[in-house]
Amino acid sequence: MEVKINKEKTIIAAMFNSIAANYDKLNHILSLGIDKYWRSVLIKEVLKDKPYTALDIACGTGDITIALMKRGVKATGLDIADKMLERAITKSKKSMKSLRHKSGKQYFLPEYICASAHQLPFDKEVFDLVTIGFGIRNFEHRGESLLEMQRVLKPGGRLAILEFATPRNYLWRNIYNIYFLKILPYIGKIISGDNNAYSYLPSSVGTFPQYKEFSRELEHFGYVNIEMKILTGGVSVLYTAKKMKSD
Ligand SMILES: C[S@@+](CC[C@H](N)C(=O)[O-])C[C@H]1O[C@@H](n2cnc3c(N)ncnc32)[C@H](O)[C@@H]1O
Known about the structure:
A 7-stranded mixed β-sheet has the order 3-2-1-4-5-7-6, with helices on both faces. The protein has helices at 9-19, 23-30, 34-47, 63-70, 82-102, 142-152, 170-192, 197-206, 212-220, and strands at 53-57, 74-79, 111-114, 127-133, 153-164, 223-231, 236-243. By secondary structure, the protein is of the alpha/beta class. It is globular, with a radius of gyration of 17 Å. The chain has a single domain (9-243), classed as 3-Layer(aba) Sandwich (Rossmann fold). It contains 9 helices and 7 strands. Helix 5 (82-102) links the parallel strand 2 and strand 3. The structure holds S-adenosylmethionine (SAM). S-adenosylmethionine (SAM) binds at residues 9, 12-13, 16, 57-60, 63-64, 78-81, 84, 116-117, 133-135, 138-140. Residues 9, 12-13, 16, 57-60, 63-64, 78-81, 84, 116-117, 133-135, 138-140 line the site of S-adenosylmethionine.
């Protein structure tokens, strides 16, 4: 079923709030657990820069934010959906308890903020790292958001974006599309009870610029050192870029 894409902030927030209770479970079921691997690739990549402060935009239930917290990064999670944030807060506190039991290393409980990516409530140049996992395709104002991320990044800081794509190999794309366009929306609807959210997913991926097209967009907004890592035959892509260093 083709779904009309409406990325208005309140509509997107309401949609994610309605699936917040089942989001993690559905993520793992629908991706056959591969979503954990995709996020782990992002974490491994961004830790190479040894970031101290990080902003995880569209943090949802906090999986990336918490993974950063577990590595000692001072992370902030930001999202427009308050119910998703409530779960992120609960999960963070739980993870923090087990971390404190384990070692004497210093960990920082993430701060969570309900705000939109295109109006970040932070001073300029405060984060070493900005991450977004499967969120940017939903942004109402993508260009403004990319500029905002650049504003809050320190010079030389890194942006890392995980997003779905459409596999380029003909055979794999056809097999994958049967699942993604037909089976996934059906299972998503049954488990979440939401008619729209899991039909919206394939439609939103279909309208998002992919691979080189999105890399060019990053370049257009002033990012440098743009790289992409294609994951699971192109089902998902990790884009990384840097904010130019000042002279
Ligand atoms: C598919 S979830 C991804 C959550 C998490 N990053 C993950 O990896 O599971 C997308 C999230 O983007 C958030 N979102 C959508 N538009 C946003 C915006 N303009 N600003 C901030 N968050 C937004 C939604 O509320 C939702 O929680």
